[in-house]
Amino acid sequence: MNEGSRDNLLDRLFLRRPLLIVIVLVGAQMGILALASPTRSQAALTAAGLGVVLILLGLLIARMRREHLRLEERIEQRTADLERANAILRGEVDMRRSVESSLRFEATHDSLTGLQNRQSIQCVIKEWLLDKSPFALLFIDVDDFKIINDTLGHDAGDAMLNHIASMLQDLTNDRALDARAGRLGGDEFILVARPCDTRAALALADQLQESLSEPLEIGDRKISVTLSIGVCATDSGRAGAETMLQHADLAMYRAKQNGKASSAAFDPRMQQDLTRRVLIENTLADPDALKDGLSAVFQPILNLRQGGVHAVEALARWRIEGLGDVSPAEFVPIADQIRRTPELDARILEVSCEAWRAWGEPELQLHVNLSHRSLARDDFADRALGILETSEVPCERIVFEIRERSFFDEESRTKVLENIQALREQGIRIGLDDFGTGYSSLSVLHELPIDLLKIDQKYLTNLDGRRDYIAVIEAIIRLARNLDLAIVAEGVNSAENLASMLDLECDFVQGFYFCKGAAADDIPRIIDRLASLTGRDAA
């Protein structure tokens, strides 16, 4: 019998219990018959022995069958254990893969918007530079995002950022364009697109601006959002990934300087502007240079009711060695970014107080602009009052002009209000500058600790033929009267502007029509020249 036949027989024996019983019974019967034989011949003894063998064989087979069943049970149990272990192992592997995938995503993507982060975008730029394919970067910054965040809250700011991210993500799904979108941090985004040259990138920037032409609905508010976009494309010269980002960033700042809500392409001259900026920053950091180069010119504010010059506003001017005269529109934003505006404000207050004493006009009001950073300092009120005391200028003659942002920055609001209260207690008045350009003035104006409103000059600059602007100015004047606030209209640059303000019964006006800004020594002469202008005579 071969091995296969033997195994087959054992299987039959193990698996068929009736056959096993038959073998045992046959063996038992043969033994009984043999023992019962009266002759007890050799054949009978042989039959008895065979019966015993069959019985033993049956018992052996039964035992082997039990062992076989136990073995099968152990094998089944072990197989089940292995299957459970494999299932647990597969779960752990899947979990590890999921965690690794999540970590890889978090390492390469922005947690708020889900867009790629700076490091990931830089890798894309490096890869595309190696491919030699033409592409462009769009460096995107949300205009006035901090004001929106401060006035409406961080949830509204996050909702706005996610909306813009969704717009950019839609562009990456455009089959005609291979594009990747990322968030660099804060309110700055990046779009990398190919094939794309400078002209196509600017068209893409216009498309983004158009997508935001309608106000966004955030909660129960509608918010107008604009972007400043800088473009840097490989057709203007290839550079490293970090350099391309820097060039796109420079172009974005040029767009902001052009009035925001606009786009600009990188030009090598922007690098020269960067060098100029660095020189301005270094000079701002030098106290001696600040003291020697900073000065002020003064613009008269006329009283339309009583006539003559009621006050003058100090306007900062600065001459920097190697650059010449630098406009405050250039150096003030830089000073704010590097936190040097408190030093600028203090110096302008010193210069202005010195000029006021020299004029010998004890009733003349002096308007001085204050930055938000100054008002947020712990020592500002004491410092300002100390300058006035040293200069012997009465507090009642000072008007500090501040911007709306100072009241709505949650982080510094408490300190700002404390400083304003300390100043007002000494007789200093507070004016709200550029009124009409903020987000929440009308709703909380009655709560603000102010004495005067200045209508933003954009309304008067574009007044001709704009009945809506006239209606806005009229409403502001009526509101100011109801709140017992003085009202000053900036930007009176023509006789027509002045006539409109007279018709609207505005209290005070200032602008290029009377004086663009005069040196301190010229102010007495200008005061004399304008002294005779009262009411309609001024027009």
Which features would summarize this protein structure in a list?
539 residues; alpha/beta; 5-stranded mixed beta sheet; 21 helices
Helix content: 55-70%
**How would you sum up the major sheet?**
8 strands, mixed, barrel
Described by the principal axes of the CA atoms, the overall outline is: elongated
Q: Runs with pLDDT <50, length 5+?
A: none
What is the average per-residue confidence, as pLDDT, rounded to a whole number?
84
Strand order of the largest sheet: 8-9-11-12-13-14-15-16
Distance between the termini: 133 Å
Number of strands: 16
Secondary structure class reads: alpha/beta
Please report the number of helical segments: 21
Rounded to the nearest angstrom, the radius of gyration is 44 Å
In percent, how much strand structure appears in the residues?
Answer: 15-25%
Description:
The protein has 539 residues and is of the alpha/beta class. The protein is 55% helix and 17% strand. It is built from 21 helices and 16 strands. The strands form three sheets. Strands 8-9-11-12-13-14-15-16 form an eight-stranded mixed beta barrel, surrounded by five helices. Strands 2-3-1-6-7 form a five-stranded mixed beta sheet, with helices on both faces. Strand 13, helix 17 and strand 14 form a beta-alpha-beta unit. The chain is elongated, with a radius of gyration of 44 Å.
